[in-house]
Amino acid sequence: MLCIGAFASAQFTAVGPFTGSASEGFETQDTSAGPFPTCVVDRVFSGQADLCSSTGSAHITGGWGFGCSLPARSGARLAGSTGGSISYDFDTGATRFGGYFATNNPTVPNGLIEFFGVTSILLHSAVLTVPNTCTWHWHGWDSGGAVIASVRISSNYSGGGYMMMDDMEADVLGGAPGAGFCFCDGTGTLSPCANPGATGNGCLNSASPVGAHLTATGTATVGPNSLLLHAVGMTPNQPVLFFQGNNAVNLGQGIIFGDGLRCAGGNILRIQILPADATGSASTSADIYAAQFNPLLPGDIRRYQAWFRDPFGGPCGSGFNLSNGYEIVWLP
After folding, report:
1. What is the per-residue pLDDT for 232?
2. How confident is the model over 111-141, as pLDDT tens digits?
């Protein structure tokens, strides 16, 4: 893995301002969850990524005063974290990423940006040269074809907080291998204890007021495949079970199960158990096709979900919760 990481890192190059396949100016997100949610409600980059803080303090605002006063670079709003680092987690990955950065912390300039692959391996890291003078500075990178699954950004102050962003750009890979279903957002079965999540997510949990979000990258082809499942917004450092079912439970609306909704059922297959990381994220590394009891055939539909422990402070007290469901049609 070290060799892979070194190879991927060597491909990254700094690039000037560009317009990507998706842009984000933070003008349209819902702020009803309060000023400092763990993850930005309504997602970012046209719903193709999550933006989450490691300390539950993601923030979208029209201006930010601290060591100096920072206005939005364009439009009416900007984004950042008041405490720890902040991360973009892409559904299908990206190959270019960039934007404008600024910091208003009162003591130290600059920061760090880290790029991670689909198995959470560090692909590349670079210094963000940003003086703490409330001025905007462009930084951008081309991965050289390496798939960027996540980007983590931190300042040199307050555990990584107070690095602000605006007018972000990304070349997002198209063609997700499946689609989400069974959301705990009021569109189907109601949440078990008045704990709905955000649009397209699972139910609210103790670590994330927007709930856990499950997606996938790669191709779901019978035999050799590159399919990986990715979940964010879960309880940090707790076990996660990624599982598969033949059926969409309750016609895809789900049924109450613990603090969440069970969406996948019928001939349940455990894909992989692993711990969520410190940000509440986890990605499979197992070969999903090889894990099958019976070989999958082209055209077979399978449903997937992430089931995770939430033992301390879960809204309904059951000790566990789930992501949304994700449905995949396997290809030849």
Report:
1. 87
2. 999 999 877 889 999 999 999 999 999 999 9
Q: Which domains does the chain have, with CATH numbers?
A: 2-172 (2.60.120.200), 178-329 (2.60.40)
Give the pLDDT of residue 9. 40
Mapping DSSP to helix (H, G, I), strand (E, B) and coil, where does residue 82 land? coil
Contacts of 75 (CB under 8 A, 6+ apart): 25, 26, 27, 166
Question: Which two tokens mark 184?
Answer: 């705990």
Angle at 280 between CA 120 and CA 82, to 5 degrees: 105
The whole-chain average pLDDT of the chain stands at 90
**Which 3 state secondary structure label does DSSP give 136?**
coil
Rounded distance between C-alpha atoms, residue 185 and residue 228, angstroms: 25
| CA-to-CA dists, residue 121 to 2, 87, 103, 229, angstroms | 9, 15, 27, 15
Asked whether the beta carbons of 218 and 177 are under 8 A apart, the reply is yes
Query: What letter does residue 45 receive in the DSSP assignment?
Result: T
pLDDT of residue 1: 27
Per-residue pLDDT tens over the stretch 262-273: 999 999 999 999
Phi and psi at residue 213, to the nearest 5°: -125, 125
Rg (alpha carbons) of the chain, rounded to whole number: 20
Nearest to 47 by CA among 215, 284, 280: 215
